[in-house]
Amino acid sequence: MRTCWINGQFVPESEAKLSIFDRGVLFGDGVYEVAAVFQGRLLDADLHLARLTRSLGEIGMPAPASNDTLLEVMQSLATTNGIDEGLVYLQVTRGEAERDFPFPTTVKPSVFAYARPKKLSDDPNAAGVAVHVVPDLRWARCDIKSTSMLAQVLAKQAARAAGTFEAMMQEDGLVTEGGSSTLWIVKDGVTYTRPLSSDILAGITRDVAIALAIDVSMPLVQRAFTVDQAVAADECFLTSATSFVLPITRIDDTVVGNGTPGPVTQRLREAYLDRAR
Ligand code: PDD
Fold it and tell me: How far does the signal peptide extend, from start to end residue (predicted)?
C-alpha cells in the first residue's frame, strides 16, 4: 500500500480525496512539479521548488507551505514508499470554492504529492525513441507549469497513436518542445535548444544539461530550430526530469542521423547520470 501526502497529512493513496469543487478539478487552476528520485534521493529538488514558487507567483497564489516542508514531504514519500529510482509528483491547486472563474477571496490551497517507481538508469528508451510532429496548440504562458494540459494530452495521444514515444510540438515550422520534455538537436558538432521564453517551460533538466555541456566545452547555442532542421540533424534528443537525456532516433518516417544514439547525446546522458550518482 503506497502512502501519499495531502493537505498536511500522510495517508494511504486510496484514502486521499479531493473535492469535486476543487478548482484544480473544475478549471485546471493549479501548478505542479515532477522531480526524479535516484538512488533513493531527490534530484535537484531545490530547483524544482524554486520553479514551483515562480509558477505560483505567476498565477497569484501564495506558497501552501515552506519549501523546506515540501522538500521533507517529497523525500519522505520516496523513502517510505521504498523508491530507489522513480519520481515524486507535487501539485498545488487554488483550492475548493463555489464555481466562479475569478479567484475566490478566501480559499485554502489544496496540496498533494505522491511517489512512483520508474527505471531511470537502465531505461530501455536510452536505445533511442521516435517522435511524432504535431501542432503546438497550447496557450501563451507555457513557462508556467500549469495543470491545464489538454493540448499536451492531445499531442501525446497523437504521438502514441502514431506508435511514437513523444510529440514534437511545432508552431509555424519551429519546434517548441516535446509534450512533456525539452527538445534538442546537434548539427555539425553544435548543440541547439530553444531559448527560454513564454513559449516553453524552463526545464530543470535543460538547465542542468546546459551547465554540463559548458563544463566539457561542448559548443551549444540557444536558438530555435525548425522541424526540417531537426529532420536533417546529426542527432536529436529530449530531456526531462523523468527521462534524463534520451536519444531521438526517428522523427515520424525519417531516421535521424544513422538511427542510433549519437556521441553528443550519449556523452550528455552519461554526464547527467554521473552527476546524479
Ligand atoms: N514535464 N516541457 C514540458 C512541456 C514539460 O511538461 C516538461 C516536464 C519539460 C521538462 O522539464 P524538466 O526538465 O524540468 O522535467 C519541458 C514533466 C516531467 C511531466 O509533466 O511529467
Answer: none
The interface pTM score, or ipTM, of the predicted complex is 0.99
Closest-CA residue, ligand 1 atom 4, reads 180
pLDDT of residue 1: 86
For the stretch 65-75, what's the b/e string if a residue is b when 16 or more beta carbons lie within 10 angstroms of its beta carbon?
A: eeeeebbebbb
| Residue pLDDT, tens place only, 45-56 | 999 999 999 999
Distance (Å) from CA 203 to ligand 1 centroid: 6
Q: Which helix (H) or strand (E) holds 206?
A: helix 204-215
Q: Is 145 a catalytic residue?
A: yes
**Domains, the chain, ordered by start:** 3-117 (3.30.470.10), 124-276 (3.20.10.10)
Cell numbers at 133, concatenated: 510532429
Residue ID of nearest Cα to ligand 1 atom 3: 180
